[in-house]
Design goal:
Strands 8-7-18-19-20-17-21 form a seven-stranded mixed sheet. Helix 6 packs antiparallel against helix 7. Helix 2 links the parallel strand 1 and strand 2. The protein is built from 19 helices and 22 strands. With 507 residues, the protein is α+β, with helices and mostly antiparallel strands. It is globular and about 70 Å long. Helix content is 36%, strand content 21%. The longest helix has 24 residues. The protein starts with 10 loop residues before the first helix and ends in a 7-residue tail after the last helix.
Amino acid sequence: MSTGGRADDDPDERRGSGRPGHAVVIGGGIAGLAAAHRLLATGARVTVLEAGARLGGKLRAGELAGLPVDLGAESVLARRPEAVELARAVGLGDALQAPATATAALWTRGALRPMPRGHVMGVPGDPALLAASGVLSAEGLARIAADAELAPTELGEDVAVGAYVAARLGREVVDRLVEPLLGGVYAGDAYRISMRAAVPQLFEAARTHRSLAEGVREIQRRAAERPQDTGPVFAGIEGGIGRLPLAVAEACRAAGARILTGTPVRELLRTPTGWRVVTGGSGSAPAEVIEADAVVLATPAGPAATLLERLAPAAAGELRGVDYASMALVTLAFRRSELPAGLTGSGFLVPPVDGRTIKASTFSSNKWAWSGTDPDLFLLRTSVGRHGDEAVLEREDAELVDVSLADLGEAVGLAARPVASAVTRWTGGLPQYPVGHLDRVARIRTAVAGLPGLAVCGALYDGVGIPACVASAHRAVDAVAGALAAGRSGAPAAGSASAFGTPGTEH
């Protein structure tokens, strides 16, 4: 094998020298960067390899009309600690902000209607609150009452959220409440998404309560008793959540990490003493061979499957079965003087059943105090596309702006043209969590666990939200801790004899 350079010293000389173990993180999204940050805290030496030109994955800071904007995810779930703690650890604690308003709406049945209170991912606990919103028809409200009289619905090991909720409460609850809320997280289809994976507290409630509404009320009662669940549900960062991965990368570099962009990994190989990572190089960057004691694979399913094809074919096969949804964000800047008077609240969701092009709109300058400080300009954004409905993404950027404006005109009476616009496409951006997803993840991890010093992490494993990605990264680092310790001590990695047979033979 011919390579253009070597990025590490001889592994045999390195082992037993007392030097820190070396970990390579493949993938520079938030999961990979969080893994690098945690690895550095253990005393490891760290190299991060990102195939693309920038870091951050689906978190991306940008600018429109001279104003900072998020061109990807815009908030974190604040009631999970991992992302907030990471932000504080890298110096962004003072920049964390709760939304200035959390008053959202649903554009459904021909009007903007207030988002009902008292639900869990759209599943109502109080029919009276739901009735007051006007989101459901009289027939839809009447169907909910049947839940208390129905015989228990078989759950099995897993069930689709939409299928189960429709069986208990009727399709209208799914189509006008669950679908837009769950679709806002996964850009997917509620009738395919796993309840066990996507809404585990609802799955448990369904297992233990005959009435689904009763189970939702129990979830809410328990949440009210937990102090950590009384603060803001979400948090952003002044200047945009896209600042988070950049700050993590900066902190990692300051701690000694080597972070390379434009550096795809061509091969991942086991050696008698650890791992060998071969980069393909990009542009003027030569190919390199990097020796490591441990590897954290923090890429989407496709690249991970390619690297694991020979090492763990069972894991590669499972990864190739993971499906992704594509979507686009249309970010628009308007003159405040040209806005309609009713542009209030944080924005609105759109049930797909209503047949609109946009799936949601966020009134950024209302939602985030840092985004609303310009007295002349107002920022908002729309989202288009979801799993099974990606044909709209074949349109040109200008067309996506126009269809967004048309829907905004109908929804809120917006007639102005934007002074600036940006379309950000996230092709294959969100992994789907169909029924059986957690079993697939378990099989992938079992197969990978047979390779000491290797672990996987990212949005496809433990949740698509930022805190879940950070937690996934921490789990991966914990999984390779033994290999890093062996690298420091000079001992052979656990399982290396059985993995290689005769020492010195590369497979």
